[in-house]
């Protein structure tokens, strides 16, 4: 097993720079999620670790060995692709065995590894099937099986759950966590889904426009977003950002509570009310004429009717940001 | 469109394209440049020496009434082959698309003429329409009182090669029309039926417009076919005759080059034909581009 | 069918049946003529029911050929045709698939130049460059040889484009997965790309086999030796003059033999044939 080091990693296509120097030390056995909107460079970063993209600048080291110039096969990594990339003409068994065959492992060793992985992933009865005869979830498992049999130092996941339906995604998330507990292999997992990131990550990198906006444990990132981008990207509905005294005041929707008009710190002109049963989401804008949009998460028992809603918030739940740089101010 | 994944190798890609490229250079580019070169040369009667004569071969070519004739013959021939071929195959394709039962069987029974060599098709029709013994000739003479003898009559010779060419190419047109028809969404036809359009109305107002790209494509392909693909038919039946009434351009190149051994003239004709192919290819690609942009 | 109109359905069947009959008629007559004695054909009209000379006529042409014009045995010509068709089909597929692979999966200097060079060959059908191509073959001493018959016809822009198009639809991730698995370019080509191209190969094979079998002008030019005749050329060489001078029963038997293999290929491999035809032209 091994850690991964990203040292000021750069990527550019000709004049166009898409990754602007990302640095991070990933410990051995850590589960890291790279989170960001589409086009932020998260997949590119992962593919640079995999060796599928040339590294334009900086260094990537796996287990202390700089891999910049190494072919993917020599980096001791395994990758799970978004569309699984299973070889359509090969059986499940052959798909998993292919990489091992190329490496010239003895047949008995290949068979032992494939059988073991199939056991872990409960694929035993499908080994002779072709990928097209499998369901989405099963294909996903085969793709993971193909990664597992290599017994690599690092697993790379490129949005592996995004082609699954919602229910299956939750299930596979659980399986991934269990797998990581069992194998303890260092993992990099790319996604645009914040729920996946929050639930899977030990630490996460939030990326925006080719930069790492924040690196940290999920709850820490949620509690203390480093930039307005992170604040509004993580959390649903996103954090309310209100201009105040030349700064931006941030407060999460669940931290707004209804109060009497006299105590009101804000008054929301309600536009839309969504009762979800467990709680109620309300959307609107600030009553004082500014066009700032607001959202609040209220108790299910809260009054659900159009009109003005006076709310207040506790001072410990307030975040301040610089409106120009978007950076967090203060603690 | 480009692939994201690329392999790097200093020699492998060259080795992979080498066979294709070598054949292309030796058997396409070299002869084509020779044709262009020869088209500016005049050879003496014994083929011993040749001299550069500029555009003289081309001037002579277009002054030659036989060559202009050959252009007319080719034009008439292509229009007839393309027009009749497209109309008949469209009719058959629409019918085959309509029937529910037996559609596959009809397709099987209609596609095999594609497998018949042009020269063999020519021999078949030469036999059917043979002036003295042909079975069709017998019907034409006996039942309709026609004086049928394509060996002597130019317009009959033209009719013969047109019929053979249409027959030989009909499966191709048919398959493309059928594929085009089958790609028209069922729901569109059904919507028109609910709007009260009958089968004929539906055909002209919905099916035909949607089929027009296919029809245009086939028009170009049929013209190319009539220009170049029918050499075997002509050679196996009329050999350009009687006189020059079925001597299409390709046949004239062959005739002048091989039989009359007029290298310069034949090469000039080749160059003109290349220009025609290039023009047709450009037309076709314009069309494909448009189709892609839909 | 959208609504039930029995008359239109009946009309459709009637037109189709008429079409099938008219289209099949020449071949039926050919078959009948190939089973008759020459004298029976010569009396106009010839009978329209098969005669009893089937075995005699066919064994005559297969082993000895006609007695007028070309006297080469058609059996040998069928062998030549088969060699030519197979060599052209297989050769075209082989050189096209590897050049398409190079053009799609590699980046190298002159890549687009090569691509356009192959593309331009679309515009140079053999018919327009007859004489100079003949000259090249003669200079290379390839007249009357299988190489001369096949090699010049093997380069193919359409096949290269078909494979290129197919490769473009193969997901990038597949090649990446192969790379992560440690497969180099040739390994990826042989283990992944080639098996995936099976249907395209089958489709092209049908089209190119027919193309090769039915070649006429090219073998006409470069085969002067009877032992190199293909079947299609053989038929033409059996026709020596006007109607009555020919041994039509033998010519028609040879025509049947010339039509049979490609027709069988078309009908038996109909699925791939249709696919190949419609896709090569896209």
Description:
- The complex is a heterotrimer of chains A (331), B (294) and C (282).
- Chain A is an alpha+beta fold.
- Chain A has 2 domains: 220 residues, P-loop containing nucleotide triphosphate hydrolases (Rossmann fold); 93 residues, no CATH class.
- Chain A is built from 8 helices and 19 strands.
- In chain A, helix 2 packs across helix 3 and helix 2 runs parallel beside helix 4.
- The longest helix of chain A is centred in the middle third of the chain and has 18 residues.
- Chain B is mainly α and 294 residues long.
- Chain B has a single domain, classed as MetI-like (MetI-like fold).
- Chain B contains 12 helices and 2 strands; from the N terminus they run H-E-E-H-H-H-H-H-H-H-H-H-H-H.
- Chain B has a two-stranded antiparallel sheet with strand order 1-2.
- In chain B, helix 8 packs antiparallel against helix 9.
- The longest helix of chain B is centred in the first third of the chain and has 34 residues.
- Chain B is globular.
- Chain C is mainly α and 282 residues long.
- Helices cover 70% and strands 0% of the residues of chain C.
- In chain C, helix 3 packs across helix 14, helix 4 crosses helix 11 and helix 11 packs across helix 15.
- Chain C is globular, with a radius of gyration of 23 Å.
- Chains in contact: A-C, B-C.
- The interface between B and C is large, with 103 and 107 residues.
Total number of domains of chain A? 2
Strand content of chain C: under 5%
Q: Measure the end-to-end span of chain A.
A: 36 Å
- By CATH, the architecture of chain C is named Orthogonal Bundle
According to CATH, the fold-level topology of chain C is: MetI-like fold
User: What's the number of domains of chain C?
Assistant: 1
Molecular shape of chain C? globular
Shape-level CATH architecture of the largest domain in chain A: 3-Layer(aba) Sandwich
- Spell out the helices and strands of chain A N to C: EEEHEEEHHHEHEHEEHHEEEEEEEEE
Structural class of chain C: mainly alpha
Mean pLDDT of chain A: 91
């Amino acid at each position: 097993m091994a850690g991964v080091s990203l040292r000021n990693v750069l990527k550019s296509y000709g004049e166009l720079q898409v990754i602007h120097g990302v640095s991070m030390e990933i410990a051995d056995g850590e589960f890291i999620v790279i989170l960001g909107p589409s086009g932020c460079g998260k997949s590119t970063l992962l593919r640079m670790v995999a060796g599928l993209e040339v590294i334009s600048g900086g260094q990537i080291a796996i287990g202390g060995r700089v891999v910049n110039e190494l072919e993917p096969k020599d980096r001791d990594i395994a990758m799970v692709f978004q569309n699984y990339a299973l070889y359509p003409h090969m059986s499940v068994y052959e798909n998993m065995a292919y990489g091992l065959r190329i490496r010239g492992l003895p047949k008995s060793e290949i068979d032992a590894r494939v059988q073991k992985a199939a056991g872990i992933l409960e694929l035993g009865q499908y080994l002779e099937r072709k990928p097209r005869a499998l369901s989405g979830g099963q294909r996903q498992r085969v793709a993971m099986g193909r990664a597992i049999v290599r017994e690599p130092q690092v697993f790379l996941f490129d949005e592996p759950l995004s082609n699954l339906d919602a229910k299956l995604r939750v299930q596979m998330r659980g399986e991934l966590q269990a797998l990581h507990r069992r194998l303890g292999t260092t993992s990099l997992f790319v996604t645009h889904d914040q729920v996946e990131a929050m639930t899977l990550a030990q630490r996460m990198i939030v990326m925006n426009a080719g930069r790492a906006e924040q690196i940290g444990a999920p709850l820490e990132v949620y509690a203390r977003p480093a930039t307005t981008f992170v604040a509004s990207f993580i959390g649903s509905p996103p954090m309310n950002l209100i201009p105040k005294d030349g700064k931006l005041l941030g407060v999460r929707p669940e931290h707004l509570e209804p109060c009497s008009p006299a105590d009101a710190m804000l008054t929301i002109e309600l536009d839309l009310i969504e009762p979800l049963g467990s709680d109620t989401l309300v959307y609107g804008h600030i009553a004082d004429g500014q066009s700032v949009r607001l959202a609040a998460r209220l108790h299910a028992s809260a009054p659900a009717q159009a009109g003005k809603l006076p709310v207040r918030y506790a001072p410990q739940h307030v975040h301040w940001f610089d409106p120009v740089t978007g950076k967090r101010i203060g603690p | 469109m480009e692939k994201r994944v690329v392999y790097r190798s200093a020699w492998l890609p060259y080795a992979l394209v080498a066979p294709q490229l070598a054949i292309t250079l030796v058997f396409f580019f070299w002869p084509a440049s020779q044709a262009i070169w020869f088209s500016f040369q005049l050879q003496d009667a014994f083929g011993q020496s040749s001299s550069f004569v500029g555009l003289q071969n081309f001037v002579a070519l277009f002054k030659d009434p036989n060559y202009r004739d050959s252009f007319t013959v080719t034009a008439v021939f292509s229009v007839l082959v393309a027009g009749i071929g497209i109309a008949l195959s469209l009719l058959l394709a629409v019918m085959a698309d309509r029937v529910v039962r037996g559609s596959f069987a009809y397709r099987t029974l209609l596609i095999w003429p594609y497998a018949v060599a042009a020269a063999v098709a020519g021999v078949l029709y030469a036999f059917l329409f043979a002036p003295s013994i042909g079975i069709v000739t017998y019907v034409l003479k006996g039942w309709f009182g026609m004086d049928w003898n394509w060996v002597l009559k130019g317009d009959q010779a033209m009719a013969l090669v047109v019929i053979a060419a249409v027959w030989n190419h009909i499966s191709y047109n048919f398959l493309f029309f059928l594929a085009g028809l089958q790609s028209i969404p069922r729901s569109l036809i059904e919507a028109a039926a609910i709007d009260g359009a009958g089968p004929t109305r539906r055909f002209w107002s919905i099916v035909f417009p949607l089929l027009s790209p296919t029809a245009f494509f086939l028009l170009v392909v049929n013209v190319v076919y009539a220009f170049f693909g029918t050499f075997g038919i002509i050679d196996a039946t009329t050999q350009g005759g009687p006189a020059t009434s079925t001597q299409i351009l390709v046949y004239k190149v062959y005739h002048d080059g091989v039989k009359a051994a007029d290298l310069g003239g034949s090469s000039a004709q080749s160059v003109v034909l290349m220009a025609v192919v290039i023009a047709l290819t450009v037309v076709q690609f314009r069309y494909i581009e448009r189709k892609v942009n839909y | 069918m959208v609504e039930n109109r029995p008359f239109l359905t009946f009309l459709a069947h009637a037109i189709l049946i008429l079409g099938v009959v008219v289209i099949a008629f020449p071949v039926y007559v050919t078959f009948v003529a190939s089973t008759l004695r020459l004298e029976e054909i010569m009396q106009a009209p010839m009978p329209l029911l098969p005669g009893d000379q089937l075995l005699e006529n066919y064994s005559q042409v297969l082993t000895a050929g006609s007695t007028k014009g070309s006297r080469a045995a058609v059996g040998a010509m069928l062998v030549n045709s088969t060699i030519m068709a197979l060599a052209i089909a297989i050769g075209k597929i082989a050189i096209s698939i590897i050049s398409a692979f190079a053009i799609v999966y590699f980046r190298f200097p002159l890549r687009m130049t090569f691509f356009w060079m192959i593309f331009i060959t679309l515009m140079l059908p053999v018919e327009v460059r007859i004489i100079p191509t003949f000259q090249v073959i003669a200079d290379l001493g390839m007249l009357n040889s299988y190489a001369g018959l096949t090699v010049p016809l093997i380069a193919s822009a359409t096949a290269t484009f078909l494979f290129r198009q197919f490769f473009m639809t193969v997901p990038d991730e597949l090649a990446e997965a192969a790379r992560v698995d440690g497969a180099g370019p040739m390994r990826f080509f042989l283990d992944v790309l080639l098996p995936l191209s099976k249907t395209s190969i089958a489709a092209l094979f049908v089209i190119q086999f027919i193309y090769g079998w039915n070649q006429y002008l090219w073998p006409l030019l470069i085969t002067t030796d009877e032992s190199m005749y293909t079947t299609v050329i053989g038929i033409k060489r059996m026709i020596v003059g006007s109607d009555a001078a020919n041994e039509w029963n033998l010519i028609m038997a040879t025509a049947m033999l010339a039509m049979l293999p490609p027709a069988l290929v078309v009908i038996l491999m109909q699925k791939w044939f249709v696919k190949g035809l419609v896709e090569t032209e896209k």
